[in-house]
Every structure is written in C-alpha cells, then in structure tokens.
Amino acid sequence: MRYLTIILFSIIFSQTAQSQIYEIGVFGGGSNFIGDVGKTNYISPNQSAFGAILKWNRSPRHSWRVSVIYAGLEGIDAKSDDPRRQERDYSFDNNIFEISAGMEFTFFDFNLHEYDNKTTPYLYTGITSGRHSNFYFDNNGEIVGEGTYSWAFGIPMVLGVKTTLTDHLILGAEIGARYTFSDELDGSVPDFDNEHPLSFGNTNSNDWYVFTGFTLTYTFGRRPCYCDF
C-alpha cells in the first residue's frame, strides 16, 4: 500500500510539473449594491465577499470559468447623495450566494506552458444566478421578511488584470458588475402579489451589484493541444 501511494503521488506530481491547463483558487474582496435603496456609487465596497473559482484554459487567449461567491449586500438611504432617499431613510442588509459560469478573454496571450512572467488584462462575461432572501418595507418603513428565497439571474461584466507569481500561482485583481433581471434584491418589489401596492422606486430599472477584489489560483493539469473552441 505504501509503494502504491508513492507511485500515485509521483504520477500526479509529474503531470502537474509538466503543464498547466486548469486553475483552481479563491476570490476575496468586497461588494456593493446599486438599486432603489442606498447609494448609487458604481464602485464602493461596503460588505465582504469571498468564494471559489475554477478555470479551464482552452487557449492562450480564452478560458471557461465557473465561480461561487457569497457576499453581503447593503443599502442605506442615509448614506446616499439623493436628498429624497435621505428623507425616506430606508436601509437593508441582505446576503447573496452567486453561481456564475462563462468565458474569460485575455487581451494578450497568456500561455501557461511558457515559463516566464506574464501579465495581461482580461474580460469575463457569461451568466449568473444569485440566491437571496425576500423581504419588503411596510408603511412605517420597517423590514418585513417574507420567509422565502429567490434566484436573481443576471449578466456579469468583469474587467481585471492577472499576473503569474510562480509557475503555478496566478494573482488577479478585478472589478465585476452584475446586471440582474430582478428588482427584488432591495425589497422595493414585494414577492407576494397582495403586497405590490408597497412597491417603490424605479420599476423600469433592475438591481445591480458589484464585486471588487482579488483572485489567487493554482494551475495544474495535462498538457493540452489547445483546440479551436
């Protein structure tokens, strides 16, 4: 059994040492919300965000990417520059669990099989789905929990830059806005039909949230042929 374990570890190490095609790692940073409650600054992290990320490098210029991120979302009218929101004085504190999948494009070749330092900006887009709790504001401006959850689908628009630290470690910094197809993240549209008279805000504008932070990934895998897809 001992010799078998040594052989298995030797095979895994030799495969990893020869090439990198996959990346697995972590994301850490902050989040901010843009909607009908609170500030409307596009980049203003006020809650923590953390998660995991997996990439499949299909060529030196693009990768398939999947991530899961858990973050807080906060909106406080008192911190807004809008006098009407300050007077209304609503606030909420919610959480979102996001699953995202799509494609990452690099501005320059990022060939992980050439063992020299590489740095490139990149873009990422695809589709996201974020699970959040539902609530609304009553006539007194107090939050009423609905005891349900919803999934908010959206489109991520991410701009970042990444660089190789070692043969197997890649550090990235990115700002990613998520445009959602929902207007329920901030409680401005109650989930129950009989509560719709309590809706407020711009019903023609859906909610956004933004993640700002860093990624650290470890590369591994079999040397690819870099197919044409």
UniProtKB/TrEMBL annotation:
Q: Does the keyword DNA repair apply?
A: no
Start and end of every DUF6089 domain? 5-227
- Protein name in the entry: DUF6089 domain-containing protein
Signal peptide position in this chain?
1-19
Gene source species: Meridianimaribacter flavus
Keywords assigned by UniProt, alphabetized: Signal
Listed InterPro entries: DUF6089, OMP/PagP_B-barrel
Q: Which domain of life is it from?
A: Bacteria
